[in-house]
Task: structure prediction
Amino acid sequence: MLDFQPIEVLMVVFVAVFAVLFVAVVVFIVVSATRSRAALKAGGLDPLAAEAQLAVQAAHSGLLAPAQSLEQRLAELDDLQARGVITADEQQAARAQLLASPSG
Result:
């Protein structure tokens, strides 16, 4: 008959619990990664380059820079013309375009 010492029983229980927890964590990681990949693909992003794609989209959106008011944009045009960066005709055309746009 087998005669186990209490410490041996505890070691077997500890190893078994550790193995079960380890497998559970690995399964959780795989399921989480699979769901994230599916969500990224459904959103039109490449799962391997999603962070870079989101950074590019944010950089090209108006979210990172505060929107200028109409007065600020007109003042900027006046300044560009005063410094000689644009001609008076270009300034007038740009002013007309700004004033005609629905967003102002």
DSSP finds four helices and no strands in the chain. The helical segments are 6-42, 50-60, 70-82, 88-100. The mean pLDDT is 90.
